[in-house]
Specification:
The complex is a heterodimer of chains A (298) and B (289). Chain A is of the alpha/beta class. Chain A contains 10 helices and 10 strands. In chain A, strand 1 and strand 2 form a beta hairpin. The chains are: A alpha/beta (298), B alpha/beta (289). At the A-B interface, helix 6, helix 9 and helix 10 of A face helix 6, helix 10 and helix 11 of B.
Chain lengths: 298, 289
């Protein structure tokens, strides 16, 4: 079953001069078509300006198509009367955690959403407990968000969305401002929400490593989908990705370079463990083989 | 040119019950024309430290010397210091404000007292170094792409001809190619103008590739200041500090544990490729014999 369905979506940003006359129209989405299956983990890649964020904002009705339709669980985002329901179904997490946190205490912040839509107090409590547990932040519930690290704040923001009991969470570069461990924690959290709670995840990112574990990767360019497939099918197209201003994970790049240099490696290697196994088999010294004495140039 | 920091501490809300150290007893000295990568978890004090270096924040304790002169000694002008030590903030494109690119970049040098034509010359040089072509000079900075805006913002600092260039996460939020363009621009500056560079980054892969030395901050303390391969050898300690080593370094470590004779301090794809190819060729030669 599909949860998100974008059908021939067009959108452009207009710039107006002082007299409100249109000065320039820059297209952001042009004939974007995309169906996302319920319960899947989809990663969206694309260079700055490829339309990723515009698409993300379409999904929960922050922006409406100029032409075409976006459906969330068969609800038309252009139908005003459904907007609240759509936003409960599809929650969003943005890049900067500091812009998304409003409560003085972590649990108050997480409770903000459900409070706002009139959820009864007892249930709010249950939802806050469950959400904080899901993002592994229960022990910080009484803390001030200001004292948390970037990764922790971002997990609080995710808990805030979780408390709305969404079917789907769209994360727009949630790790761009985080340090390596914060990044790992957020991605692990997102993956668990997908596996354990069955929440559909749409993750927009510039870190290719984060896309490796997705069920499906979508690559956008000029406002529509240009590649769509499993990580191993996408990341083997190294040159095409680079032409789209993108990249591949370091491990994949190394494997690709070694293959080009003549080593018998598979077409696409995504994970460190996998490359390690293959290289160990290939290079394991036979009996007393030692590196040539003159070969050490590092 | 040298920057020297001696026993620098910075305390938030000093003298109150809420007193807390943002930086604690930091000492280091930069070398002429070196590229320094500054890493640390969020809240480790990186941004606070770099703001000390051009006198935007005054240390609670300790001293900062520029060319062996205390920056707060009599006769030192902070205004001049800020031209010599250029600071590019995070998301600098938010600070663009003029109607066209060239005017925006001219703002700094004009403020330094240069005439309009001198400022224009300085701006053109800076834009060229930053890889922004003449066709953009008269465009509004707000029409440019994210990566272009950021390069214009960096040019605004370069136009003041700084000796030291400090950048706070210059590649944050850019797509991979945009990131490479910014980082290679910075590297080119480093090579052509021999600027000392201090670059704050959350990407271990980037500092491994570009930095001569890496400075690691943890909870306001300076824990390492050494070559990348030496610093990344401490990957277990780095992980405890919210950091990591580059993915490639972990791979090389795994291979070494499996009994392969590889250098496990390698941090870039290029070096790893060379190392593995050498083993591969050695083994093939052995097989033939």
């Amino acid at each position: 079953m599909k949860i998100i369905d974008a059908v021939h979506v067009f959108f452009d940003y207009m710039r107006r001069d002082e007299n409100d006359k249109i000065e320039e129209i820059s297209p952001a989405l042009s004939d974007m078509n995309l169906e996302i299956e319920k319960g899947s983990f989809v990663c969206v890649l694309g260079h700055n300006g490829s339309g990723k964020s515009t698409f993300a904002k379409m999904v929960n009705g922050l922006l409406l198509p100029k032409k075409g339709k976006v459906y969330v669980e068969e609800m038309d985002t252009a139908d005003d009367s459904l907007l609240l329901k759509i936003r409960e179904t599809a929650g969003m997490v943005f890049q900067n955690p500091d812009n998304q946190i409003i409560g003085n205490i972590v649990e108050e912040d997480v409770a903000f959403g459900p409070e706002n839509i009139g959820v009864p107090t007892d249930e709010i409590r249950q939802r806050v407990d469950a959400s904080l547990k899901a993002v592994n932040m229960t022990k910080y519930r009484k803390k001030s968000p200001g004292r948390l690290s970037g990764g922790q704040k971002q997990r609080v923001a995710i808990a805030g969305v979780m408390a709305m009991k969404p079917e789907c969470i769209i994360l727009d570069e949630p790790t761009a401002m985080l340090d390596p461990i914060g990044r790992k924690d957020v991605i692990r959290t997102v993956r668990e929400l997908n596996k354990k709670e069955g929440i559909t995840i749409v993750l927009i990112t510039h870190y290719m490593e984060e896309a490796v574990d997705a069920d499906r990767i979508i690559v956008m360019d000029e406002g529509h989908v240009v590649m769509d497939g499993k990580p191993e099918d996408i990341f083997k197209r190294v040159e095409e990705l680079k032409a789209l201003r993108l990249d591949v994970p370091q491990v994949t790049e190394l494997a690709y370079e070694l293959r080009k240099a003549g080593l018998p490696l598979p077409e696409c290697v995504l994970r460190r463990e996998e490359l390690c196994d293959i290289l160990t088999k290939l290079l394991k010294p036979v009996e007393s083989f030692k590196r040539p004495a003159d070969g050490h140039n590092f | 040119m040298s920057l020297r920091v001696e026993n620098l501490s910075y305390i938030y809300q000093a003298g109150t019950a809420m007193e807390s150290y943002a930086l604690r007893d930091i000492s280091f000295e930069t070398r002429e024309g070196e590229f320094i990568g500054l890493i640390g978890h969020t809240g480790s004090g990186k941004s606070t430290l770099i703001q000390h270096l051009n006198g935007l924040i005054k240390p609670t304790e300790g001293h900062i010397f520029y060319n062996d002169r205390d920056i707060y000694s009599e006769g030192m002008s902070l205004k001049e210091l800020r031209q010599k030590v250029g600071l590019v903030f995070q998301y600098p494109e938010y600070q663009l404000f003029e109607t066209d690119v060239i005017t925006d970049v001219k703002f700094g040098p004009k403020n330094m007292g240069l005439s309009d034509s001198e400022a224009e010359e300085a701006a053109k040089r800076a834009l060229e170094l930053s890889g922004i072509g003449e066709e953009f000079y008269k465009r509004s900075p707000f029409e440019l792409s994210g990566g272009q805006k950021r390069r214009v913002a960096i040019a605004g600092v370069l136009a003041m001809d700084p000796e030291v260039l400090i950048l706070d996460e210059p590649a944050a939020g850019l797509d991979p190619l945009g990131k490479n363009e910014i980082l290679s621009t910075i590297e080119r500056l480093h090579h052509e103008r021999k600027n000392t560079i201090i670059m704050v980054s959350h990407s271990m892969e980037d500092v491994a590739e570009y930095a001569d030395r890496i400075m690691v901050l943890d909870s306001g303390r300076l824990v390492y200041f050494d070559e990348p391969k030496v610093v990344f050898r401490h990957y277990e300690e780095l992980e405890k500090m919210g950091l990591s080593a580059p993915q490639i370094t972990y791979l090389m470590g795994d291979l070494k544990k499996r009994g392969l004779d590889v250098d496990d301090s390698i941090g870039t794809v290029e070096a790893a490729k060379a190392e593995i190819l050498m083993l591969w060729k050695g083994k093939q030669k052995y097989n033939k014999e």
